[in-house]
Amino acid sequence: MHIAVAGNIGSGKTTLTKKLAAHYGWRPEYEEVDHNPYLEDFYSDMSRWSFHLQVYFLNSRYMQILNLRDEKHDVVQDRTIYEDAYIFAKNLYESGHMSERDYNSYLELFSGMTRFIQPPDLLIYLKADIPKLVKQISNRGRGYESSIRIDYLKNLNDYYNRWIDGYSQGKLLIVDVNSLDYENNPEDFSSIINQIDLELNGLFTVK
Predict the structure, then answer these.
(1) Greatest Cα-to-Cα distance within the chain, rounded to the nearest angstrom
(2) Which has the closest alpha carbon to 193: 80, 71, 76?
(3) 2-206: what fold?
(4) Catalytic residue among 34, 41, 70, 78
(5) Is 158 known to be catalytic?
(6) For the chain, what are the domain ranges?
(7) Which portions of the chain are predicted below pLDDT 70?
């Protein structure tokens, strides 16, 4: 079974992925952040490094999904390949940080890759407003994220809302995390587990 956690920068995807893996015994697949060779350069000059960054993420996510085919354990994935294309690359192109030539080349890569993969069995979307995102980004203290602009986060949230509103590739669970602290509050984490259990029971019933 393939579970994926989606959401904007700072929404708490990695934290939830880690806690779900521990709770259910799933194997976690994390986003390549700390070892990404383009991320710091990207935040200092988005136009210069947008294509490089997005291709790196696209390939990383694609390889993760291919490896899932041979995986005998249930997996929970931090961010999906669809977010790379429908949220981040699209936003960079439409905001003028990626050229039309690079964007079209990226979409061709994405289209070719997605012919050979399946969407997650369950997508968990962490819905967070800008104040929540800013607070959590600040709390984790990644130096390269200090230059993230508020309007960039707002644009990403808009793209996320459109993508989720039209999502039809599998089961979807939307979790509003604005008032939750599931990292430190067991009750908040338990409420999310209860929602996931209901969705998983539906998956097993269908199968």
Answers:
(1) 49
(2) 76
(3) Rossmann fold (3.40.50)
(4) 78
(5) no
(6) 2-206
(7) 33-34, 141, 143-144, 146-147, 203-207
